[in-house]
C-alpha cells in the first residue's frame, strides 16, 4: 500500500478524464506549514476525506507529501511530480533531497496496515518561511566588558524557520486532526521558546566578548547561536530549524544609555586632540559670556582668568592663546566712570563710592556695596 510515480505520458491532457480523482494542495500560502490535500474530480473539489485507489496526487516544488491511513504514515515523497496511489504496492519512500535523514524517523512512524479505510494526503511546506515577527517583552541583561557594566537591551525584528524533517514535524509539531497549520496557529508556543533561546544566544554573545553595539550587525552569529540552543526542542523533536534572525532595532533602557554616553565621552577625552578642541571651545564660550556680562566685562574677565589659573595643567595647552585673547577683550571693555565723574546721573541713579559703577538699585551691581543713605 503506497504510491508509485506516474509516467509522464500518462498525465498529459485533462487529468480529470484519466484518473478517478486528483489530489492537490489548495491552501498552501507563504505562512503555511501544513495543509491537507483536497480531492478534485470533474465537478470540482470533493468534501470526502477518503482517497480512492488509483487516484493521482500532485506534488509541487518545496513540498513534502505524506500519505496516511488511519492517522499513520504509510508512504511519502519529497520529489515533485505526479504519483498514483496503489494499495497493492509497497511504500515507495521517495527521499528527494532529504535522502537518508528520514529513514530513522520512518522506522518509528511507519504503518504496515492493509485496510485503506481513511487514507489522507498531507503537504508539508519545506520552503523557508520568512517574516515571523518577534520582540522582547522585558529588557535582556548584557554584560559588556568594554563598558565594564551590566547593560539592558530590547530587541525587535523578524526571523525565519524551515521544516528540515517533515516526518518529525507531522508527528510532533502538528495538532492532531488539523487540516491546516499556519504560523499564527502555533506561534504563541514557538515564540516563547524562541525568545528564551534569543536571551540565551545574546548572553552567549556577551560571554564571547562581543560589544553590545555590534549585536544588531551579528545576525548570522545570532542565528547560529539560536540554532544550537533550539536543536533539542525544535530540530530533534519537531524537525524545525531557525534559518536566519534579522534584528530590526535594538534599544537600551535609560540607565544603560546614560552609562554608554558617559563611557563614550570619557573615551573621547582621552584623545589629546579632542580634549584640546573641547578646551578651546569652552574658553571661547566663556569669553563670549564674559563680554556680555551685565555686571561688567572687566570683572568677568578677571574672574575667568583666576579660574583658568586655578585649573592648572588641564588648561596649560590653551593658556598662551587664551591669555592673549582675554587681555585684548579686557582692554577693549569700557571702564566705569569714577565716583563723581563727568557723567550726569539720572533721577534715582547713584555712583558706587567703592568702584564708581552707575547703579539704579539699592546695591551696586558690580561690587555689591549698599546704596549710601
DSSP summary: helix tally:
9
Assign an overall shape: rod-shaped
Might you state the CATH topology name of the largest domain? Tetrahydropterin Synthase, Chain A
Share of residues in strands? 25-35%
Low-confidence stretches: 12-16, 313-321, 332-342
What is the CATH superfamily classification of the largest domain?
A: Band 7 domain
What's the CATH class label of the largest domain? Alpha Beta
Cα-based radius of gyration, to the nearest Å: 40 Å
> What's the N-to-C terminus distance?
121 Å
CATH architectural name of the largest domain: 2-Layer Sandwich
Tally of discrete structural domains: 4
Number of strands: 16
| Strand/helix succession | EHEEEEEEEHEEEEHEHHEHHHHEE
Structural class given helices, strands, pairing? alpha+beta
Helix content: 25-40%
Largest sheet: 10 strands, mixed
Essential attributes:
373 residues, Tetrahydropterin Synthase, Chain A, 16 strands, alpha+beta, 10-stranded mixed β-sheet, 4-stranded antiparallel β-sheet, 4 domains, 9 helices
Any overview of this molecule?
α7 (272-291) packs antiparallel against α8. 35% of the residues lie in helices and 26% in strands. It is built from 9 helices and 16 strands. Mean pLDDT is 74; it is low at 12-16, 313-321 and 332-342. A hairpin with a 2-residue loop joins β6 (63-69) and β7 (72-77). The protein is rod-shaped and about 125 Å long. Strands 1, 2, 3, 4, 5, 6, 7, 8, 9 and 13 form a 10-stranded mixed sheet that branches. Strands 10, 11, 12 and 14 form a 4-stranded antiparallel sheet that branches. The protein is α+β, with helices and mostly antiparallel strands. It has helices at 15-18, 103-109, 166-173, 183-207, 219-238, 254-269, 272-291, 297-311, 319-332; strands at residues 2-5, 22-25, 32-41, 44-45, 56-59, 63-69, 72-77, 81-86, 119-125, 129-135, 140-144, 149-163, 180-182, 240-252, 350-351, 358-359. The longest helix has 25 residues, at 183-207.
